[in-house]
Amino acid sequence: MPTTLKSFISVSPDSHFPIQNLPYGIFSSKNNSTKRAGTIIGDQVLDLALIEQRGLLKQCYDPSLALFDSTSLNAFVEQPRALQKQVRETLQKLLSADNAVLRDDEALRQAAFHAYADVTMHMPGKIGDYTDFYSSIDHARNTGVLFRDKDNPLLPNYRHIPVGYHGRASSVIPTNRSIKRPHGQVVPKDATDPIFSPSKALDFELEMAFFIGKGNELGEPITIDKTYEHIFGLVVLNDWSARDIQKWEYVPLGPFLSKSFATSISPWIVTLEALEPFHVTPRAQEPTPLSYLQFNKDFSLDIQLEVAIKTTKMIKPEVICRSNFSYLYWTMAQQLAHHTVAGCNTQPMDLIASGTISGPEVGSFGSLLEITFGGAQPLTLSTGETRVYIQDGDEIIMTAFCQGDGYRVGFGEVRGKIVG
Ligand code: CA
Fold first, then answer.
1. pTM metric for this prediction
2. Residue 174 lies in a domain
3. Residue 333 pLDDT grade (very low, low, confident, very high; cuts 50, 70, 90)
4. Which of 66, 132, 250, 361 has fewest C-beta within 10 Å?
């Protein structure tokens, strides 16, 4: 990717959305409440439905397919990778400083661009299934120390199998939506029987997730060397978790209501193509996993991650965690190869999450459970307030970006406020 690529739209070096990014999302605007596809450059959303209608993508596909004039990205993400790459290249050309088509057509620009501050972002598509892995070894270790055995925190399967569970797709929600504090069965301290109560241990989990592009047929696993052909792009994900409900319900089948009340995702899907310059060598794995999980071209990504909290007393959010996608033990390729190896089919826009992404050091923990050492060390904020878990009115803001040479490829933010 040439870093010298420049757009006629001005983009500051710390913007998440330079011409090198061009992620996809579904938006509506003040003057047009129809949900439709867009991309973002700087702080301007480009209406891709309009660009498609005007025939500016007709060298890539027949505009009557209406891949962008749609309330979801489902039809676009399942297109062949070659078509998607051609669309990306065409958009980069259209937006580049030396191309007059859009730059010099004032009327078209007026119609096609919207200030990001003036649009509403929606779900990027219809999610069929949602899966959540547990791919961060530091997170697994931190929680193992708290709940199992500090000398032997990892379960025996951890270094052999990418552990995951089937989540709930219907409650995946976009950014900037409030989340109602869940109620459920919790067991008070020193009691043996549960009571019905609002959760008093509401937590976040810092995760990233990928969307499936082209799916696979039932009974036909995706071999690990083909996995990246099936991954469309990534978002930041907050897996809201009610720890007190989780603690009582999770035996023996795992989390149920403690996770299914809400899962928030960032609005723009950043494509694998945009992330290519940020490939890094994955973490060493010991022991060597079984052969279906081995891939000599596998990669991780250098994506910097941040979590901030904004209480009602704060003027601006305060960062409480800095982590990195490259801390993950299991890669996306391994997650997807494992997910399908027994024959499970996947479909376009299935959502596959990493699990909480924690690092090894204090300051890089991706949940309040870990930050407060299970509640033993409450977090003190700059306002003097303390937190063990999230209070009503608190907003959690997650963001992620890759730092290039003079530019960033970022994901924007996923925000969510807890209300009583
Ligand atoms: Ca999770």
1. 0.97
2. yes
3. very high
4. 361
